[in-house]
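anyone else get weird line breaks when pasting these?? whatever heres mine. first is seq + C-alpha cells for prot A
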Amino acid sequence: MYERYQVAPGSLSEAWRRYFEGNGEIPTGDGAGSAGEPAAPPPALPTAAASRTVASGPAASTATVTAHDAVQPDAAAVPAAPTGTTEYRGAPEATGRTDVIPDPPTESPEAPDPQPQPARPDHAEGIEILKGAAATIAERMGASREIPTATSVRTFPAKLLEVNRTIINNQLARRAEGGKVSFTHLIGWAVVRALCEQPSMNAAYTEVDGKPARVAFEHINLGLAMDLPKKGGGRTLLVPNLKQVDDMDFKHYWQAYEEVVARVRAGSITPDDFAGTTATLTNPGTVGTVQSVPRLMPDQGVIVGVGRIGFPPEYEGSDPEALARVGLGRTLTMTSTYDHRIIQGAESGMFLARVHELLLGEDDFYDEIFRAMDVPYVPVRWAVDSNPAPGSQAWAEKQARIFQLINMYRVRGHLIADLDPLRQQPPKIHDELDPIAYGLSLWDLDREFATGGLAGRARMTLGEILGVLRNAYCRTSGIEYMHIQEPDQKLWIQEHAERPVPPISTAEKRRLLAKLIEAESFERFLHTKFLGAKRFSLEGAESLIPLLDVLLNAAADSGVEDVVLGLAHRGRLNVLANTAQKDLAAIFHEFVGHEEPDDAGNFSGDVKYHLGARGIHVTPDGRKVGVEVAANPSHLEAVDPVLEGITRA
C-alpha cells in the first residue's frame, strides 16, 4: 500500500493518504499527529512467500493474507508489518509499544473505494503511462480480443519469386531512377490480386440494430504493418494503408507503397493514412520469424502474415552445391487470420491457394508485373525439375545442350536485345534462346556446367552463363558477327563482348552527359535558326558523339597519333562541330549559301555535307590526338577505299 502511495497517491483514499503523510501517525480531527509518539516505520509490501495473521478491532477475528491479497485495493486491507508476522490489537497508545502497527484508519462512509490497480512487482523500477500511438495500439489490441478468429497456414516454394525479382531489380539498377522491388512488394501484390478475385475476404463484421451483419467493401485499402524504432529505445507499430489499391497496376502500387514508407520514416504520416483499412499485410519474416498468427483488428476481415524465406532449419548448414543438385529451394510460409463470423475456413484456404498459384506465375502474374515495370524481357516460368545422374547418357546430352545454348546466343542474341524504346511490340523470347527449349529450367540456374571457356571460365552455373550472354548480346545493343569467316576475328569479338564491363565513374558519366547535351543543342539550334534547311540531322542518334569521344580517348591512351573518319551525310555536321572541332561560325556561314558559286543555278546546296575538316581531340587527362573527317563524295561506296588510302598515306 505504501508503494502505491509513493507511485500514485491519488489511487488511495483520503484517509490512507493522511496516514502516510503523517509518517504513520493517525491524524486527529485537526490534522495533527499524536504529540510525543514516535513515527512508525513505513509499511512494506510482503514478499510472495510471506503471510500474516490480522486482527481487526477489539473482537479480533483472524485471517491469513497472502502477498497477492495484500496488494488488492480492499478498504479493509492494512499495511504489512516490517518483518515476519505480527499480531496486534488496537493502537500503539493502548499497548505502549512502538513496534506495533496501528489499526488502519477509519475511512469516512462517503469516501469512494479506490479503483482497482494491477499488482506491481517488487523489482519494478517505475510505471510508464502509455500515450499516443502506444496507447492506441494497446486499446486496439484489447479490442481485437473480442473477435473470434481462426488461422489458415500454407507453405509455398519461393524459387520462382526469387528469380523473377532478381530480373526486375537488375533492370531497375540500369536506370537512372533506380529503385528496388522487395519480396513484400510482390507478395503483397499477389494478396491484392487474390482479394480482387475473392471479394468475400475483403469484408468486415458489424451489427445493425443489434443483429449481426456483414460489410462488403467496394475497394481494397491494404494496411501495411510497419515496425519502427522509437526515440530513446523500444519499438512501435504503425499500420497505414494504400487506398484503392485494386484500381492500380503493379508500378503504381509499388510507387504508392514506397511513398507511404518514406512518409512514415520522415514522420509526415497523417491520420487519414490509417483510416479505412479493409485488410492488412504484415511481414515478420524480415526479422526471421517463420510463421506468425497476428491480431485481427476490428472493422477488417483478414490479416495476412508473411514468414521468412529460407531453407528448412535442417538444411541451413548444407553445401549449396548439394542443395542445387537435389533441387532443394527456399520456402515461404504465409498465414491468413480471419474473422470467423463472416469468413469460413474453406474461403481462407482457397484464398491462400490462389496466392500460391499467382506466385508460381499462373494467369500471367509475372508477365503483368514485367509490363508494368517496363522490363523488356519475359519472366522465368515454373517447371518441374529433371536432373539426370552425373555420368549418365542423359547427363551428357544435357551438357551438350548447354554448348548449343551458348552458341545460339552468339548467333541470335540480338533478336531479344532491348532495341525498342517505344515498346511498340511486347517482349518475347526467341525459341532458340529459351532455356526451356533445351530441357533446362529454373532449378538448373544454381547447377554448374562446362562452358568451353566462356568469359575465360571453364565452369559456371547456368545462372552465371545466362548473365554473361545476356549482358553481352541482349541489352541495349545487338551484335551480329558469327557470319564472319575468319575464326581469329570472331574470337576477338567474343572475348571483348563477353568480358565483364567495368562500372562507369561519376566523372565519366558527367562527360558523357556533356557530350550528349552538345550534340542535341547543336541540332536544336540548326532547326531553330535554319528552319526547313536540309541538314541531315543526327536527332535520335546523338549517342554517336559520346561514342566517338570514348573511342578517341581510348585511341589516345593507346598511343595513336591520328584518327581518320569516313562519314555519310547523316550526322556529318554534328561530328564536324563536336568531334573534329570545326569552327561553328564556318558551319553556320555555309548554311546561308555563301559556299555556292554565283553561277550555281539550281545547285542543291548540300556541298557542306561533302566537306571534311581536321582538328585536335583532347582527352580528359590532357592527351591529344589528331582527328580528320574525310571529304565525302556523293557515291558512298567509294568512302572505304578512299579512307584506307588516306590512312596509309
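and prot B, same format (seq, then C-alpha cells)
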Amino acid sequence: MDKQKDLHRMEALKKELFILNKAYFTDNNEILPESVRDSMKRELIDLESRYPEYITPDSPTQHIGAILDERLQKCQHALKKESLADVFLFEEIIEWEGRLKKHVDTSFEYLVELKLDGLNVTLTYEDGIFIRAVTRGNGFEGENVSHTIATIQSIPKKIDSSFSGEISGEVFFMKKDFERMNENNDFKNPRNAAAGTVRQLEISAIKNRKLSFFPYQVFSHFIHFQTQSEIMKWCCAQGFKIESHSIVCASVEEVCLFIERWSPRRGALDYEIDGMVIKVNNKKHQKIIGSTAKFPRWAVAYKFPAEIVQSQVESIDVQLGRTGVVTPVALLRPVLLAGSTVSRATLHNYEEITRKDIRVGDTVLIRKAGDIIPEVIEVVFDMREKKSQKYIFPNTCPSCESVLEKEEGEVAIRCVFHDCPAIRLEQMKHAISRQAFNVDGLGEEAMRALLDKKYIQNIADLFSLKKSQLLSLPLFKEKKADNLLASLDISREVALKNFIFSLGIRFIGQETARLFSMFFIKRLSKKTIIQKIIENDSQLSLFSEPKVIEVQKSIFSVSNFFTLAMGLSLEEVQEIDGIGEKVAISFLDYFQAKSSQVLAEKFESNNVYILYEEDTSSDEYSGMTFVITGSFENFSRDSLKNIIIQRGGKVSSAVSKSTNILLCGEKSGSKKEKAEKLGINIWREKDLRDQGIE
C-alpha cells in the first residue's frame, strides 16, 4: 500500500464521517445507509491501526455519538456512557473471546440480545420516582429529553422505592407505529423517526407518535446484581417491557448458532434490529475485564452482513466474456460485503460508467447484484478529489489489440476477432462448466496452457486429448492426468440442453437452451436414436464379488442434431414458446456458420453423443414465478431451479410484486424480509416435501 495514499484516504474518511454522523445523530437525517457509515468507520479503524502515530483527537473513532442539539438543555451523566465495539464475522467473536481470556482465564457465559435500531436514552430515578431522561450524547453529557420520554406508556414513572440510579435502554418505534406516523414519508427509517420525535420541543408535535422503550442496563450504588440476565428480570419485575428473545449461551459456539438461527428471521419481528449484542453475563467478570477509553471490553455488537457498503476505486480494469463483450471492472480497496471480502465490482458497460460518472479514486457504494455479483451503484461525489479525471474506455482489445466495435442499438462494446485468445479461453471455461459438459479437474491455468500449446482450439478438441500431451505440461502429474481423462470420458454423453448451452451461442442461457432442447426432442425421429449398452462394475459390499450391471442409454449423434438445427427456418424457430426474433437469428446464424459444421465433425470423430431424454415437464407451476434464497439441507439451488422449470414455473433472481413463491432456506437474508413485506407466500424445505418433491 502507498502510505501517502492511505493517509490521504484517512483524512477523506474522517471528513465524510463527521458530516454523516452529524446528519444521523443530531439532525435525524440518514444521508447514506448505516451500513455505509459502518464500512467507512471500519476502514478508518483499519488504517489508524496501521498508522497509529497519525490518529488525531478529532477522529470519529475517538468519540462517542455526535454534536449535541443546541436547542435542548444539556445534562452531565453520573457515569460515562460507552458505545460498543462492532464485530462483523463469527471469527471476530472468537477473537474477542480470546482477548477476554487474557483478563479472566475461565469459561464465560454470555447474554445475547437482539440489537434494536433506535436511540440510546438513560432514565434517572430517585427513591423509585422517574426524574429525567437524557440521550447518550457524547458519553459525558447528553440532551435532556424528559418531556418527550415521559409520554412513553411502557416506561413506569414509579418503581421500587429503594432504587436510586440510572436505567439505560433503547427508544424505538414498532414497525406498525412507524408506518402509521410516517404516512407522508418524512423519515427514511424508524431509527431517525425515533430520534427526531424524542428531540421535539413541543409535546403537541408528537401526540400521534407512539414510541416504545426496552431497557438493557442498570446502574445503582444501592442494588447489586450477580449477572446481566438478573438485570433484565429485575427490569421486568419493575413493570418495564423487555426484549424477550435474549438468551444465555454457555459458549461462543452457542452464540454463533443463535445468531445464525435469528439472521433469516429478523424480518418477522415487530421492530427493526441490525444485529446482536453479546455481553459477558457475570458482573464480577465484567468489572475485572473493564473498558477501553471508549468501549466496554466485556461486550460487543455483532452487525448483520451489510447489503450496501462503500469502498474506493483504486483502478478500472476490463475483462472479456465468451461472446467478446468487454466489461469494465472496478478494482477496490478490500471491503466486507454480505459476509465476504470484496475487492472487485462490475461496472457493467461504458454507458453505465458514463451515466454514473465513475472515476479512479472515487468512493463508491457497492452491493451484490442478485445476492451474487458485486456492483457499483453510485458515487459519493462529495469525497471526490478535485484532480480526478473522467475514465477513458479503451478502443482496442486488451488481449489481441484488435479494434473494439459497438453494434447499433446495443450498449455492449465487443472484440470481434474470431481468434482472440481471451475470448477462446472464456468460451472453453463456459463449455466445461457444470451446466454444460461438467468436466472436473481442469482449471483456468491448465486450460490456458493447453490453448497456448495448441493442443486444443475448441471444446471438441478436449475429447481427443492424450495422456502424453497432458504430462508434457508442468501442471499435470500421472494421477491428475488420469482423473481429467476419466472425467472427459464421462462427459462424452451430455444432455441436449447442456450441449446447446455449452456452445456459447449469443443470447442463449440455461433457460433458453432448455426451451430449444424440448423443441428438438419432440422433432427427433425414432430412427436416429441409438440404444447403447454400458457395462458398469458394481460391488454391493466388501465381502461380495464385483458384478457387471448393464445400463441401457438412448443417445443420438451430434451430426443429427446439427442437421436438424441447420434445416430450420426463422419462422419455425420463432414459433418456439419463449423464443424471440433476436435469439432466433443468433441461433440460426451460429448453425449456418462453416466453423460450426467443422465443430460438429470433431465432436462426431471424438465419440461425443447427446443423451435422449424425453420431456417430463408439467404445467403444475405454470404462470408462477419463484425466487430461491438461502441454503437447503437436501437440495442444491440448481436442482430446485430445475424442478420448478420442469413443473412449468419460472425462476427469478429478485423478489418483486410479481413473485408468487419464495423458496426460503437457511441464511436467507434480505429477500425473506422483502417477501414478508410484500405478503408473498414463503415455502420452507418441509413445504417442498409436502409437495412431493424429494
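btw re prot B: Confidence is low (pLDDT under 50) at residues 538-544. Residues 20 and 32 are 7 Å apart (CA to CA).
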